[in-house]
Design brief:
The protein is mainly alpha-helical and 129 residues long. 71% of the residues lie in helices and 0% in strands. The longest helix has 61 residues. The two termini are 61 Å apart.
């Protein structure tokens, strides 16, 4: 129910002019609609912000796990290649049995390789939990 700003008369809704003094009431109706639109726009912004924050939070863990797994896999492969070279590898089908045994022993005792494997295993198993 709009109130006339000139005379203070209460007027029925959707009345274009004051019933007492005749002043146009349209600006008051527009102001009310504008206020309602502003409230709706503010609510929409808040809801949108909450949705974006939730989506970002949901994306953080998988991104962290993928990046960590890729890093530890890369590190393990790099260390493994270095260990193969330092142990006299790679072993082929034409390598002798004693060469294979020496190579396997060397690879199983390489501390850097064991550490890289442990780090990879720990990260990938922890991220699945």
């Amino acid at each position: 129910m709009p109130i006339c700003t000139a005379c203070g008369e209460k007027n029925p809704d959707n009345t274009p002019r004051c019933i007492k003094c005749g002043v146009a009431l349209g600006h008051q109706a527009r102001a009310k609609v504008d206020a309602q639109r502003a409230t709706v726009a503010k609510t929409v912004r808040i809801i949108f912000t909450v949705i974006v924050v939730v989506l970002v939070l949901l994306a953080i863990k998988p991104a962290y796990e993928a990046a960590g797994t890729a890093y530890f896999r890369y590190r393990l492969n790099t260390v493994k290649e270095a260990a193969i070279k330092s142990c006299g590898g790679p072993i082929t089908e034409t390598s002798m049995g004693y060469q294979k045994d020496q190579f396997d022993k060397c690879m199983s005792t390489d501390e850097t390789l064991q550490t890289a494997q442990t780090n990879f295993d720990n990260f990938t198993h922890a991220s699945k939990s």
